[in-house]
Design brief:
About 65% of the residues lie in helices and about 0% in strands. By secondary structure, it is an all-alpha fold.
Length: about 300
């Protein structure tokens, strides 16, 4: 170990093969312990100064993907286990939320390299659609678990989502399709992750129980089918959201869902749908804020005559 300064060889994950061995050696039988270990590695990889940007991105992907099965298991336990003790509920919530937080910070660090054109940023260019979409996915997950515990929106968290998405639009890769997790069939994009975050944020999560928030999230995950098929200028999704026809489409979709059967609780489903139809004022403020952010990032500060003013 060097006494002064840091060399990339000082870190246990400096070599990709050794990093894989470390991740594979984490026991899978205890998801609490596994996720705590993986959260530690994400934080360590993000903060270590001796890595190249490309190697850091590879490690973030490796550790994050290893965490997914454990994260799904703990989320299921939190939402489906009846009568959790206060200690159990707090431990589950803290571990889940920290996993999303560390993942979001790690991916955002990689994205920032590209945004600020740090030395070596060019090597990350092919990875940017994946890194950006997964950064937004993690930020949205963190936001969801904030709602579950506190019911309040974190302004700083929403600001990060807006800035990352606005940059993706400015570089015209927001709509690029990528896998949510490598090897899984589900696809996403920065565009779709942003849209889902907006829909969740305006569903009145402060008035919903944890299970209801989960249901709303699953419903709004269907929103991508209403994402615009073609770019609408630099403001792709944001331009679509402030279009009255798009708002009416989403509203019509929510109303249509009322007429479908839900195998589980119809009452729960109805309450979730009511939530989706509320708070248009919040949607308006959020969309206009993001439009302003996007125009600053893209340098397109000319005034536009259309701003979102509709209510549901």
């Amino acid at each position: 170990m060097k006494l002064f300064g840091a060399d990339k060889s000082d870190h246990p994950m400096a070599d990709a093969k050794e990093a894989r061995k470390i991740v594979d050696a984490i026991p899978g039988g205890d998801s609490f312990k596994a996720l705590e270990d993986l959260n530690h590695w994400l934080e360590s990889v993000r903060a270590w100064p001796g890595f190249t940007h490309e190697h850091r991105a590879e490690l973030v992907e490796m550790v994050n993907e290893a965490a997914q099965a454990h994260l799904r298991r703990l989320q299921r336990d939190h939402l489906s286990t009846p009568r959790l003790s206060k200690y159990q509920e707090n431990r589950l919530w803290t571990t889940i939320r920290e996993s999303y937080r560390q993942s979001a910070l790690a991916y955002a660090t990689c994205v920032d390299v590209f945004v600020t054109s740090q030395k070596g940023w060019e090597l990350l260019k092919p990875r940017m659609p994946v890194l950006t979409a997964r950064a937004l996915h993690a930020l949205s997950g963190q936001m969801k678990w904030q709602y579950i515990r506190y019911g309040l929106q974190d302004a700083a968290l929403w600001g990060s989502i807006c800035k990352i998405y606005a940059f993706a639009e400015s570089r015209r890769y927001a709509g690029a399709k990528v896998a949510v997790v490598t090897g899984m069939p589900e696809e996403t994009s920065a565009e779709l992750e942003f849209l889902k975050a907006v829909m969740l944020a305006v569903s009145s999560p402060d008035s919903l129980l944890p299970q209801e928030i989960e249901l709303v999230e699953r419903l709004v995950a269907l929103a991508p089918r209403y994402a615009p098929a073609d770019p609408l200028s630099p403001d792709t999704v944001m331009g679509a959201l402030v279009d009255e026809g798009q708002l009416n489409t989403v509203l019509g979709y929510a109303r249509m869902l009322r007429r479908e059967d839900l195998r589980k609780s119809p009452d729960l489903r109805e309450r979730a749908l009511d939530a989706l139809e509320r708070n248009a004022d919040t949607l308006t403020r959020m969309v206009n804020d993001v439009l302003d952010t996007s125009r600053v990032v893209t340098g397109s500060c000319a005034s536009r005559s259309t701003r979102a003013r509709w209510t549901w």
